């Protein structure tokens, strides 16, 4: 059975959402600054093979040079994805803050509108009962 949108919206603790919006934005900004500051790991160029390295026996548990380069490339790709994700999180947090601000503005405006409608209704009732 599907839950209606109004039911879902009524279940959201909007006071908590509005109160925590600045914290979410600040956390996203801190994340973005941290990720933006960290350097992208660059795979190191292959060192010239020395006779010592060539003479050393290959241990089966040690990764080969191509495996290490593949891992370094993967780390670099993951770092780029993390930077892109944190930029997206920061943008979404800013949009969330703007949305919460607009919701709060609409809530205040709706309160004033309800007060005006109530005053007009009271005036109409007064005129109908008087006349």
Layout of strands and helices, then pairs:
Blueprint: H1 5-11, H2 14-37, H3 51-55, H4 65-130
Helix pairs in contact: 2-4
Task: Write out key terms for the chains shown.
4 helices; 131 residues
Structural class: mainly alpha
Oligomeric grouping of the chains? single chain
Order of H and E elements? HHHH
Could you tell me how far the N terminus lies from the C terminus, measured between alpha carbons in angstroms? 52 Å
The total strand number stands at 0
Q: What is the average per-residue confidence, as pLDDT, rounded to a whole number?
A: 79
Helical region count? 4
Calculate Rg over CA atoms: 30 Å
Percent in strands: under 5%
General form: rod-shaped
Largest sheet: none
- What's the helical proportion of residues? over 70%
Unreliable runs: none
Q: Can you describe this structure?
A:
- The chain has 131 residues and is mainly alpha-helical.
- The chain has helices spanning 5-11, 14-37, 51-55, 65-130.
- The protein is rod-shaped.
Précis, in short:
By secondary structure, this protein is mainly alpha-helical.
